[in-house]
Amino acid sequence: MLNGKNGESAFVFDCVCHIFNFDMNNAFGPPGQLFINHLYAFHQFLTAAGEPVLPPEKFLREWSVDEIYDMIIGNSDTDMIVAQPLPLTDLFKDGLSSWEKCAEMARKHPDRAVFWGAVNPLEGKKALDLMEVQVKEYGAKAFKFYNVRYDYGQPFPWRMDDPRVAFPCFEKALELGVNLVGVHKGVPLGPQPIEHTRTWDMDGAAANFPDINFVIFHVGLPWLDEVLWQIVRYPNLYASIAATVNFVSRHPRVFAEQLAKMLWWCGEDKIIYGGETPIWHPQWALKAFWDFELPEDLQTQYGYPPLTIQAKKKILGENLARLHGMDVAAKKQELGLAA
Q1: Confidence (pLDDT) at 188
Q2: What are the CA-CA distances from residue 206 to residues 60, 169, 184, 201, 235 (Å)?
Q3: What domain range includes position 197?
Protein backbone atom coordinates (compact mmCIF):
# COMPACT_ATOMS: atom_id res chain seq x y z
CA MET A 1 0.00 0.00 0.00
CA LEU A 2 1.11 3.52 -0.75
CA ASN A 3 0.62 5.72 2.30
CA GLY A 4 0.46 9.49 2.26
CA LYS A 5 -0.54 12.49 4.30
CA ASN A 6 -3.71 12.69 6.41
CA GLY A 7 -3.97 8.90 6.66
CA GLU A 8 -4.74 8.47 2.96
CA SER A 9 -3.51 5.35 1.18
CA ALA A 10 -3.73 3.87 -2.30
CA PHE A 11 -3.96 0.33 -3.63
CA VAL A 12 -1.29 0.12 -6.35
CA PHE A 13 -1.84 -2.20 -9.32
CA ASP A 14 1.01 -1.70 -11.79
CA CYS A 15 -0.03 -2.44 -15.38
CA VAL A 16 3.38 -3.53 -16.68
CA CYS A 17 6.68 -5.13 -15.93
CA HIS A 18 8.82 -7.08 -18.37
CA ILE A 19 11.21 -9.92 -17.54
CA PHE A 20 13.81 -8.67 -19.97
CA ASN A 21 16.67 -10.59 -21.52
CA PHE A 22 19.02 -7.74 -22.43
CA ASP A 23 21.96 -10.04 -23.18
CA MET A 24 23.23 -8.84 -26.54
CA ASN A 25 23.58 -12.49 -27.61
CA ASN A 26 19.79 -12.71 -27.37
CA ALA A 27 19.44 -10.22 -30.25
CA PHE A 28 19.29 -11.20 -33.91
CA GLY A 29 21.88 -8.69 -35.07
CA PRO A 30 22.04 -4.86 -35.09
CA PRO A 31 18.26 -4.09 -35.11
CA GLY A 32 17.73 -5.95 -31.84
CA GLN A 33 20.89 -4.53 -30.32
CA LEU A 34 19.73 -1.00 -31.20
CA PHE A 35 16.36 -1.75 -29.58
CA ILE A 36 18.13 -2.78 -26.35
CA ASN A 37 20.38 0.28 -26.39
CA HIS A 38 17.40 2.58 -26.74
CA LEU A 39 15.79 1.06 -23.63
CA TYR A 40 19.04 1.55 -21.73
CA ALA A 41 19.09 5.18 -22.89
CA PHE A 42 15.59 5.61 -21.42
CA HIS A 43 16.86 4.17 -18.13
CA GLN A 44 19.70 6.70 -18.09
CA PHE A 45 17.70 9.72 -19.25
CA LEU A 46 14.50 9.39 -17.22
CA THR A 47 15.82 8.08 -13.91
CA ALA A 48 15.28 10.75 -11.26
CA ALA A 49 18.24 12.75 -9.99
CA GLY A 50 19.77 11.05 -6.98
CA GLU A 51 18.43 7.62 -7.92
CA PRO A 52 20.92 4.95 -9.03
CA VAL A 53 21.58 4.62 -12.75
CA LEU A 54 22.80 1.10 -13.43
CA PRO A 55 26.01 0.64 -15.40
CA PRO A 56 25.67 -1.36 -18.63
CA GLU A 57 26.99 -4.57 -17.11
CA LYS A 58 24.23 -4.54 -14.46
CA PHE A 59 21.42 -3.51 -16.81
CA LEU A 60 22.23 -5.22 -20.11
CA ARG A 61 21.79 -8.79 -18.94
CA GLU A 62 19.11 -11.45 -18.54
CA TRP A 63 16.82 -10.56 -15.64
CA SER A 64 15.12 -13.27 -13.61
CA VAL A 65 11.50 -13.72 -12.59
CA ASP A 66 12.36 -13.51 -8.89
CA GLU A 67 14.44 -10.35 -9.01
CA ILE A 68 11.82 -8.47 -11.05
CA TYR A 69 9.06 -9.57 -8.66
CA ASP A 70 11.14 -8.67 -5.60
CA MET A 71 11.99 -5.25 -7.02
CA ILE A 72 8.32 -4.44 -7.50
CA ILE A 73 6.46 -6.20 -4.70
CA GLY A 74 9.24 -6.54 -2.15
CA ASN A 75 10.97 -3.19 -2.62
CA SER A 76 8.23 -0.74 -3.57
CA ASP A 77 4.73 0.18 -2.42
CA THR A 78 3.19 -1.80 -5.29
CA ASP A 79 0.49 -4.32 -4.31
CA MET A 80 -0.08 -6.11 -7.64
CA ILE A 81 1.74 -6.36 -10.94
CA VAL A 82 0.98 -7.33 -14.54
CA ALA A 83 3.73 -9.48 -16.06
CA GLN A 84 3.86 -8.76 -19.79
CA PRO A 85 5.78 -10.60 -22.49
CA LEU A 86 7.29 -9.03 -25.57
CA PRO A 87 6.65 -11.27 -28.60
CA LEU A 88 9.49 -9.71 -30.63
CA THR A 89 10.73 -13.08 -31.82
CA ASP A 90 11.87 -11.53 -35.09
CA LEU A 91 14.41 -9.41 -33.18
CA PHE A 92 15.22 -11.60 -30.16
CA LYS A 93 15.57 -15.33 -29.61
CA ASP A 94 13.09 -15.29 -26.70
CA GLY A 95 11.05 -12.26 -27.79
CA LEU A 96 12.95 -10.06 -25.25
CA SER A 97 10.50 -10.79 -22.42
CA SER A 98 9.37 -14.39 -22.81
CA TRP A 99 5.75 -15.25 -22.18
CA GLU A 100 6.80 -18.39 -20.32
CA LYS A 101 8.66 -16.32 -17.70
CA CYS A 102 5.73 -13.94 -17.33
CA ALA A 103 3.37 -16.87 -16.85
CA GLU A 104 5.81 -18.28 -14.29
CA MET A 105 5.61 -15.10 -12.22
CA ALA A 106 1.82 -15.34 -12.10
CA ARG A 107 2.00 -19.05 -11.26
CA LYS A 108 4.41 -18.45 -8.39
CA HIS A 109 2.50 -15.45 -7.03
CA PRO A 110 -1.17 -15.86 -8.01
CA ASP A 111 -2.35 -13.41 -5.35
CA ARG A 112 -0.10 -10.58 -6.55
CA ALA A 113 0.86 -11.15 -10.20
CA VAL A 114 -1.34 -11.26 -13.31
CA PHE A 115 -0.20 -12.72 -16.64
CA TRP A 116 -1.04 -10.97 -19.90
CA GLY A 117 -0.43 -13.06 -23.00
CA ALA A 118 1.26 -11.86 -26.18
CA VAL A 119 1.43 -13.25 -29.72
CA ASN A 120 2.37 -12.13 -33.22
CA PRO A 121 -0.92 -11.77 -35.18
CA LEU A 122 0.97 -12.00 -38.47
CA GLU A 123 1.47 -15.69 -37.71
CA GLY A 124 -2.23 -16.38 -38.29
CA LYS A 125 -3.49 -19.67 -36.90
CA LYS A 126 -0.26 -20.21 -34.98
CA ALA A 127 -0.96 -16.99 -33.07
CA LEU A 128 -4.57 -17.97 -32.39
CA ASP A 129 -3.50 -21.37 -31.12
CA LEU A 130 -0.94 -19.78 -28.81
CA MET A 131 -3.59 -17.41 -27.45
CA GLU A 132 -5.66 -20.45 -26.51
CA VAL A 133 -2.67 -22.08 -24.80
CA GLN A 134 -1.83 -18.91 -22.88
CA VAL A 135 -5.40 -18.53 -21.58
CA LYS A 136 -6.45 -22.13 -20.99
CA GLU A 137 -3.16 -23.55 -19.73
CA TYR A 138 -1.41 -20.52 -18.22
CA GLY A 139 -4.26 -18.26 -17.13
CA ALA A 140 -3.67 -15.18 -19.28
CA LYS A 141 -6.15 -12.46 -18.28
CA ALA A 142 -5.50 -10.07 -21.18
CA PHE A 143 -3.29 -9.64 -24.24
CA LYS A 144 -0.65 -7.10 -25.27
CA PHE A 145 0.16 -6.47 -28.93
CA TYR A 146 3.01 -4.82 -30.81
CA ASN A 147 2.26 -3.41 -34.27
CA VAL A 148 5.80 -3.10 -35.65
CA ARG A 149 7.23 -6.48 -36.55
CA TYR A 150 10.36 -7.28 -38.52
CA ASP A 151 11.24 -9.56 -41.42
CA TYR A 152 14.96 -10.20 -41.83
CA GLY A 153 15.64 -7.02 -39.86
CA GLN A 154 13.29 -4.82 -41.87
CA PRO A 155 10.10 -3.28 -40.40
CA PHE A 156 6.94 -5.23 -41.21
CA PRO A 157 4.02 -3.39 -39.56
CA TRP A 158 0.39 -4.40 -39.05
CA ARG A 159 -2.59 -2.36 -37.89
CA MET A 160 -5.14 -2.77 -35.10
CA ASP A 161 -7.97 -2.11 -37.58
CA ASP A 162 -6.87 -4.77 -40.08
CA PRO A 163 -9.77 -7.24 -40.52
CA ARG A 164 -7.42 -9.99 -41.76
CA VAL A 165 -4.61 -9.67 -39.22
CA ALA A 166 -5.96 -8.05 -36.05
CA PHE A 167 -9.65 -8.90 -35.97
CA PRO A 168 -9.19 -12.70 -35.77
CA CYS A 169 -7.09 -12.16 -32.62
CA PHE A 170 -9.74 -9.93 -31.05
CA GLU A 171 -12.44 -12.46 -31.93
CA LYS A 172 -10.31 -15.22 -30.40
CA ALA A 173 -9.84 -13.18 -27.22
CA LEU A 174 -13.61 -12.78 -26.82
CA GLU A 175 -14.11 -16.47 -27.54
CA LEU A 176 -11.68 -17.21 -24.70
CA GLY A 177 -13.52 -14.88 -22.34
CA VAL A 178 -10.89 -12.12 -22.50
CA ASN A 179 -12.09 -8.55 -23.01
CA LEU A 180 -8.92 -6.58 -22.22
CA VAL A 181 -6.28 -5.79 -24.86
CA GLY A 182 -3.25 -3.53 -24.60
CA VAL A 183 -1.15 -2.19 -27.45
CA HIS A 184 2.24 -0.50 -27.58
CA LYS A 185 1.84 2.90 -29.22
CA GLY A 186 4.28 5.76 -29.64
CA VAL A 187 7.76 5.44 -28.11
CA PRO A 188 9.47 4.10 -31.24
CA LEU A 189 12.40 1.84 -30.38
CA GLY A 190 15.28 0.57 -32.44
CA PRO A 191 14.78 0.92 -36.20
CA GLN A 192 10.97 1.25 -35.97
CA PRO A 193 9.62 3.83 -38.45
CA ILE A 194 7.84 6.35 -36.27
CA GLU A 195 4.69 6.46 -38.44
CA HIS A 196 3.93 2.83 -37.58
CA THR A 197 3.69 3.69 -33.90
CA ARG A 198 0.86 6.22 -34.43
CA THR A 199 -2.66 5.53 -33.25
CA TRP A 200 -4.84 6.06 -36.33
CA ASP A 201 -5.82 2.39 -36.26
CA MET A 202 -7.40 2.51 -32.79
CA ASP A 203 -10.67 4.01 -34.04
CA GLY A 204 -11.39 0.94 -36.15
CA ALA A 205 -10.44 -1.47 -33.38
CA ALA A 206 -12.59 0.29 -30.78
CA ALA A 207 -15.59 0.75 -33.10
CA ASN A 208 -15.63 -2.83 -34.37
CA PHE A 209 -15.05 -4.44 -30.97
CA PRO A 210 -17.07 -2.45 -28.42
CA ASP A 211 -16.96 -5.37 -25.97
CA ILE A 212 -13.15 -5.18 -25.71
CA ASN A 213 -11.46 -2.56 -23.56
CA PHE A 214 -8.30 -1.35 -25.30
CA VAL A 215 -5.42 0.20 -23.35
CA ILE A 216 -3.15 2.49 -25.38
CA PHE A 217 0.26 2.25 -23.73
CA HIS A 218 2.52 5.25 -23.22
CA VAL A 219 -0.48 7.45 -24.18
CA GLY A 220 0.92 7.09 -27.68
CA LEU A 221 3.62 9.71 -27.00
CA PRO A 222 4.47 11.84 -28.90
CA TRP A 223 0.93 11.58 -30.32
CA LEU A 224 -0.83 12.65 -27.09
CA ASP A 225 -3.45 14.93 -28.66
CA GLU A 226 -4.42 12.30 -31.22
CA VAL A 227 -4.85 9.68 -28.52
CA LEU A 228 -7.01 11.94 -26.33
CA TRP A 229 -9.29 12.80 -29.26
CA GLN A 230 -9.80 9.04 -29.64
CA ILE A 231 -10.27 8.18 -25.97
CA VAL A 232 -12.90 10.86 -25.46
CA ARG A 233 -14.96 9.40 -28.34
CA TYR A 234 -14.81 5.71 -27.49
CA PRO A 235 -15.89 4.40 -24.08
CA ASN A 236 -13.69 1.32 -24.51
CA LEU A 237 -10.38 3.17 -25.00
CA TYR A 238 -8.01 3.80 -22.07
CA ALA A 239 -4.56 5.36 -21.62
CA SER A 240 -1.61 3.83 -19.80
CA ILE A 241 0.97 6.27 -18.45
CA ALA A 242 3.65 3.56 -18.35
CA ALA A 243 6.99 5.29 -19.13
CA THR A 244 5.13 8.63 -19.28
CA VAL A 245 4.95 8.74 -15.48
CA ASN A 246 8.75 8.74 -15.31
CA PHE A 247 8.75 12.35 -16.45
CA VAL A 248 7.29 13.19 -13.03
CA SER A 249 10.70 13.83 -11.47
CA ARG A 250 12.95 14.34 -14.48
CA HIS A 251 10.66 16.84 -16.25
CA PRO A 252 7.80 17.67 -13.84
CA ARG A 253 6.39 20.52 -15.93
CA VAL A 254 6.24 18.34 -19.03
CA PHE A 255 4.50 15.62 -17.03
CA ALA A 256 2.09 18.13 -15.49
CA GLU A 257 1.02 19.43 -18.90
CA GLN A 258 0.56 15.90 -20.25
CA LEU A 259 -1.44 14.71 -17.25
CA ALA A 260 -3.55 17.88 -17.13
CA LYS A 261 -4.61 17.29 -20.73
CA MET A 262 -5.47 13.68 -19.95
CA LEU A 263 -7.59 14.63 -16.94
CA TRP A 264 -9.44 17.30 -18.90
CA TRP A 265 -10.06 15.22 -22.03
CA CYS A 266 -10.67 11.68 -20.87
CA GLY A 267 -11.03 11.97 -17.09
CA GLU A 268 -9.57 10.17 -14.10
CA ASP A 269 -11.41 6.90 -14.84
CA LYS A 270 -9.47 6.21 -18.04
CA ILE A 271 -5.86 6.62 -16.95
CA ILE A 272 -3.78 3.64 -15.77
CA TYR A 273 -0.43 3.65 -13.97
CA GLY A 274 2.50 1.51 -15.11
CA GLY A 275 6.02 1.25 -13.70
CA GLU A 276 7.95 -0.47 -16.55
CA THR A 277 10.31 -2.35 -14.23
CA PRO A 278 13.23 -2.96 -14.68
CA ILE A 279 13.78 -0.01 -17.03
CA TRP A 280 13.21 2.02 -13.87
CA HIS A 281 12.86 1.02 -10.24
CA PRO A 282 9.14 1.63 -9.56
CA GLN A 283 9.35 3.25 -6.13
CA TRP A 284 10.66 6.72 -6.89
CA ALA A 285 8.12 7.54 -9.61
CA LEU A 286 5.33 5.97 -7.57
CA LYS A 287 6.12 8.12 -4.55
CA ALA A 288 6.64 11.22 -6.68
CA PHE A 289 3.26 10.73 -8.38
CA TRP A 290 1.49 10.27 -5.03
CA ASP A 291 2.99 13.58 -3.82
CA PHE A 292 2.49 15.37 -7.15
CA GLU A 293 0.15 18.34 -7.61
CA LEU A 294 -0.72 20.10 -10.84
CA PRO A 295 0.76 23.62 -10.95
CA GLU A 296 -1.78 26.27 -10.03
CA ASP A 297 -1.44 28.14 -13.33
CA LEU A 298 -2.56 25.06 -15.28
CA GLN A 299 -5.77 25.10 -13.29
CA THR A 300 -6.43 28.85 -13.02
CA GLN A 301 -5.24 29.96 -16.46
CA TYR A 302 -6.06 26.91 -18.55
CA GLY A 303 -9.03 25.46 -16.71
CA TYR A 304 -7.57 22.01 -16.13
CA PRO A 305 -9.03 20.01 -13.22
CA PRO A 306 -6.97 19.36 -10.08
CA LEU A 307 -5.19 16.07 -9.49
CA THR A 308 -7.20 14.95 -6.48
CA ILE A 309 -6.49 12.12 -4.04
CA GLN A 310 -9.48 10.30 -5.55
CA ALA A 311 -7.98 10.65 -9.04
CA LYS A 312 -4.61 9.37 -7.85
CA LYS A 313 -6.20 6.31 -6.27
CA LYS A 314 -8.06 5.49 -9.47
CA ILE A 315 -4.99 5.95 -11.65
CA LEU A 316 -2.66 3.99 -9.37
CA GLY A 317 -4.77 0.88 -9.14
CA GLU A 318 -8.53 1.11 -9.03
CA ASN A 319 -9.02 1.65 -12.76
CA LEU A 320 -6.98 -1.41 -13.74
CA ALA A 321 -8.65 -3.48 -11.04
CA ARG A 322 -12.04 -2.52 -12.47
CA LEU A 323 -10.98 -3.57 -15.98
CA HIS A 324 -9.98 -6.93 -14.53
CA GLY A 325 -13.34 -7.27 -12.77
CA MET A 326 -11.62 -7.11 -9.42
CA ASP A 327 -13.18 -5.92 -6.15
CA VAL A 328 -10.48 -3.71 -4.60
CA ALA A 329 -11.85 -3.92 -1.06
CA ALA A 330 -11.99 -7.71 -1.21
CA LYS A 331 -8.50 -7.89 -2.74
CA LYS A 332 -7.05 -5.65 -0.03
CA GLN A 333 -8.61 -7.89 2.60
CA GLU A 334 -7.19 -10.99 0.88
CA LEU A 335 -3.70 -9.45 0.87
CA GLY A 336 -3.95 -8.25 4.45
CA LEU A 337 -3.71 -4.60 3.47
CA ALA A 338 -5.08 -1.78 5.60
CA ALA A 339 -8.60 -0.71 4.67
Answers
A1: 85
A2: 37, 14, 15, 9, 9
A3: 2-335
